[in-house]
Amino acid sequence: QVQLVESGGGLVQAGGSLRLSCAASERTFRTYIMAWFRQAPGKEREFLAFVNMNGGITHYADSVKGRFTISRDSAKNTVFLQMNSLKPEDTAVYYCAAGVTQNNYASWGQGAQVTVSS
């Protein structure tokens, strides 16, 4: 399994932006589909977006489409989540994940807290 470490979380006002980063531990990063999920208190984990191995295909949940952008930099073994027009309901712990298919993620990061104030 690949080890993943998220960074970039924090507190932001509604309407603001944050960029999350997720650094992977190994060069095989480019063989994984990478995704972002989030989990708010008392709620189930929610899929947000994935990007395929070469970065050419992305898919988003309706809740974030048009506001969030997933991207990857294989030279840096890092995947990003640019979050714009943030809303208080985006408050959650955000996780990156690595998998061999878009429905099966075996490696997870420790999570990054994102808090959006109204």
Key terms:
118 residues; mainly beta; 0% helix; globular
Structural overview:
- This protein has 118 residues and is an all-beta fold.
- It has strands at residues 4-7, 10-13, 18-24, 33-39, 46-51, 58-60, 68-73, 78-83, 92-101, 104-108, 112-117.
- A hairpin with a 4-residue loop joins strand 7 and strand 8 (78-83).
- The chain starts with a strand and ends with a strand.
Sheet with most strands: 7 strands, mixed
Structural class by sheet pairing and helices = mainly beta
Task: Report the mean per-residue pLDDT as an integer.
Answer: 95
DSSP helix fraction:
under 10%
**How many E-type strands?**
11
Radius of gyration: 13 Å
Helix run count: 0
Shape: globular
Could you spell the SSE succession in H and E letters? Answer: EEEEEEEEEEE
- Uncertain runs: none
Determine the strand fraction and express it as a percent band.
over 45%
How far do the termini sit from each other? 38 Å
Brief account:
The chain has 118 residues and is mainly beta.
Could you give the topology of this structure?
Elements (H helix, E strand, L loop, with lengths): L3 E4 L2 E4 L4 E7 L8 E7 L6 E6 L6 E3 L7 E6 L4 E6 L8 E10 L2 E5 L3 E6 L1
Parallel strand pairs: 2-11
Antiparallel strand pairs: 1-3, 3-8, 4-5, 4-9, 5-6, 7-8, 9-10, 9-11
